[in-house]
Amino acid sequence: MSKAFKEVPVVILCGGQGVVLGEGSTHRINKALVQINGKPLFWWVLLHYAQHGAQDFLLPVGLQAEEFQRVLREDFGASTDPTQADSYQLDIAGQPCRLRVLSTPVAANTAQRLLACKPWLAHAPHFALSYSDTLSEVDLSAELAFHKAQGTVATLVSTQYPVRFRILGMRQGESLVRAFAPKPVIEAAAINGGYYLFSAKIWEPAFGLDGNSALEAGPLDKLAAQQQLTAFEHRGPWQHCDAERDLAPLNRIAQALAAQTSA
Q1: pLDDT tens-digit readout, 119-158
Q2: Cα separation of 104 and 112, whole Å?
Q3: What is the domain-level CATH number for residue 216?
Q4: What helix, strand, coil percent values describe the chain, rounded to 5?
Q5: Which of 160, 237, 243, 261 is the most exposed place for a label (fewest CB within 10 A)?
């Protein structure tokens, strides 16, 4: 098992407005708590990073904040740290890990949740940030090596756009369908797959991480404009949780991660 992330703190964004799953259901659940392969989705994100040596985790939570603490205590048997409120000790992938659960407003944006973690990140040369509703089989150790070699302030994973519908070939102002876009053209589109890495320079005012706009808006735009954002290409499995149809591919990725731990 890699130890690349042993000294790299990891932020896992566990906020958001949640998702409604199941036909006829009106119950909104935090996507991080959606059950995947018998465990909540955020657990698999923790496991993925722990497999690469991560031991220090920060979980800024919003919707259903109390449920995260209950899951850690009752479902995973995490022990509390009497010296630090909302801090837990838990073995993940065979190594001791520390998890801090930080309550943030339900309506907070991603930059505001990251800023809530700043007291524990300000002195780290590099830190990672990931979404709690996305799984992949990206090689995190290779991404970290890439990030350090590039020397930019930030790195994200680029992945292929998951295509479900065929794109029509039409000219503007016409109603005639002339063709369908070939699949290779569609697959050439790259999207932001998350799994960010940041250097300590991200806190500098020039990059706009002030909470006034979401991380994916102002700060990433400023990083790109200043040529301080690089993309680590990942062509393997990647899946975001937005609807019930996403559960099957998420389960497949979780099973692959579990197999890596038991290997």
Answers
A1: 999 899 999 999 999 999 999 999 999 999 999 999 999 9
A2: 8
A3: 3.90.550.10
A4: 30, 25, 40
A5: 243
C-alpha distances out from residue 208 to 26, 46, 109, 202, Å: 37, 28, 14, 9
172 is a domain residue? no
Phi, psi for 40 (deg, rounded to 5): -65, 150
Q: How far is the first Cα of the chain from the last one, in angstroms, to the nearest whole number? A: 10
Residue numbers of the domain that contains 118: 10-162+191-262
- What does residue 261 show for φ and ψ, rounded to 5 degrees? -70, -40
Q: What percent of the chain has pLDDT over 90?
A: 70
In tens, the pLDDT along 31-71 reads 999 999 999 999 999 999 999 999 999 999 988 888 999 99
User: Given this model, what pLDDT does residue 17 score?
Assistant: 72
- Whether pTM > 0.85 for this model: the answer is yes
The reply to whether 79 falls in a domain is yes
Q: Would 206 be classed as within a structural domain?
A: yes
d(C-alpha 53, C-alpha 75), whole Å: 23
Q: Where are the alpha helices (DSSP H) in 78-216?
A: 110-116, 140-150, 183-187
Q: Does pLDDT of 72 surpass 90? A: yes
2 in a structural domain: no
Tell me which residue of 223, 149, 159 sits closest to 195, measured CA to CA: 159
Instruction: Calculate mean pLDDT across residues 161-186.
Output: 74
Phi, psi of 63, rounded to the nearest 5 degrees: -60, 135
